[in-house]
């Protein structure tokens, strides 16, 4: 992630406020008292539209119009749609992580912190606005491994993996790196199941995570 | 799945022969001695192109050209791109499942059959042509839950879930339906991790599956 995440990253891609960016320009200005500029409005509208409708289905015309900005300004700010895709994902990535990853896990035991992440995941996937994980959606839809947005998606997903690895180490897992990979497999699989609607038991991911913690002695 | 899967379903979407359909028209005729007709060529080209490049990135012009068929014929055969997406996924769905799900698991113990599915998954995700699961890609890229291809994708994914559930029952799992959901979560999560390249340990999914089988007493 080459860019600092802006202070206005609390809105569109979060999935809870998925329809906010196209009409409501207040989100990015929250706490600052300033209306967002054209660049921030483009980032918000792009993240919202790409998340709700898909990257391929949304053209720069629609993003510009939704942001109330000319297409020329869009190109001046971002140069290309590919760059807009990458930067809008980056600008909202922390808000996406914030759906399930607390900034500070506090003093709770590692096992409890890990299970809390899966409970938060369950709330996210059950919400009306849930349309998958923006990082996974981006990596899935953009076939080119060299697309700049794929690196952004990967970097954010690695933050979650690193959190799992740190917690697994603190919890004295038998093999913390393996447990971290197992937990992120369950995490992303739960997201896919929610998108596809093929699971029957809403507690599948949480109980799987608990069983994996048990197997590695993280009590 | 409203359509019978054709005998030519062994090619494009399988991921192992991902580049076959666009130039090689022999795949659908294998074993029959007949060259495939325009409809089959369109199904093969569509499945291959949508899988490799993404649904949104591939227009009907490219599919028709790759199949050596006029766009008019494409519309006569399928009516719309949406229908072509759905039918091409359906026509190649069994070949996708065949990558990891044996038609007949034989007499091996259920635990061994389940772990064999995960070993096959590992081979698939490690192959050069792997570009994710066509069912997951389709459901992820098409935001409209009512798109006809999403139902096709869901139906095929449910076949895998049903296989897990049957094996879990035969293996006397403590809660076979929960185990089936847990296993498909791990299965799809492993696919996402392979697409994103965020895992470190290639054995994460297989060891997770084994731990979940252990937890449910499937020895």
Describe this structure in words.
The structure is a homodimer of 219-residue chains. Chain A is mainly α. The two termini of chain A are 35 Å apart. The relative contact order of chain A is 0.13. Chains A and B meet through α7, α8, α9 and α10 of A and α7, α8, α9 and α10 of B.
List the helices and strands and how they pair.
2 copies of one chain form a homodimer.
Chain A: H1 20-23, H2 38-53, H3 60-67, H4 71-78, H5 81-97, H6 110-126, H7 134-141, H8 148-170, H9 176-196, H10 204-215
Helix pairs in contact in A: 2-3, 2-5, 5-8, 6-8, 6-9, 6-10, 7-8, 8-9, 9-10
Attribute tags:
mainly alpha, homodimer, 61% helix, 219 residues, 0% strand
The proportion of residues in beta strands of chain A is: under 5%
Distance between the termini of chain A: 35 Å
Q: In terms of structural class, how would the helical and strand content of chain A be classed?
A: mainly alpha
Radius of gyration of chain A: 18 Å
Largest sheet: number of strands, sense, barrel closure of chain A:
none
Q: How many beta-strand runs of chain A?
A: 0
Number of helices of chain A: 10
Most residues in contact, chain pair and counts: A-B, 52 and 52 residues
* Topology order of chain A in helix (H) and strand (E) letters: HHHHHHHHHH
Instruction: Report the average pLDDT across residues of chain A.
Output: 87
| Spatial shape of chain A | elongated
Helix content of chain A: 55-70%
Low-confidence stretches of chain A: 1-30
Chain oligomer state: homodimer
């Amino acid at each position: 992630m080459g860019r600092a995440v802006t202070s206005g990253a609390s809105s569109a891609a979060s999935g809870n406020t998925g329809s906010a960016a196209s009409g409501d320009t207040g989100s990015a200005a929250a706490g600052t008292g300033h209306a967002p500029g054209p660049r921030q409005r483009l980032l918000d509208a792009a993240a919202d539209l790409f998340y709700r409708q898909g990257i391929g289905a949304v053209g720069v015309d629609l993003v510009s119009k939704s942001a109330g900005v000319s297409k020329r300004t869009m190109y001046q700010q971002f140069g290309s749609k590919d760059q807009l895709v990458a930067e809008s994902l980056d600008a909202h990535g922390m808000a996406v992580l914030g759906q399930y990853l607390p900034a500070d896990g506090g003093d709770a035991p590692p096992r409890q912190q890990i299970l809390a992440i899966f409970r938060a995941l369950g709330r996210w996937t059950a919400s009306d606005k849930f349309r998958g994980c923006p990082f996974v959606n981006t990596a899935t839809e953009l076939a080119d491994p060299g697309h700049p947005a794929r690196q952004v998606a990967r970097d954010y997903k690695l933050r979650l993996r690193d959190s799992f690895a740190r917690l697994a180490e603190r919890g004295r897992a038998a093999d913390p790196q393996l447990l971290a990979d197992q937990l992120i497999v369950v995490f992303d699989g739960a997201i896919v199941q929610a998108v596809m609607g093929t699971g029957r038991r809403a507690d599948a991911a949480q109980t799987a995570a608990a069983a994996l913690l048990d197997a590695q002695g993280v009590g």
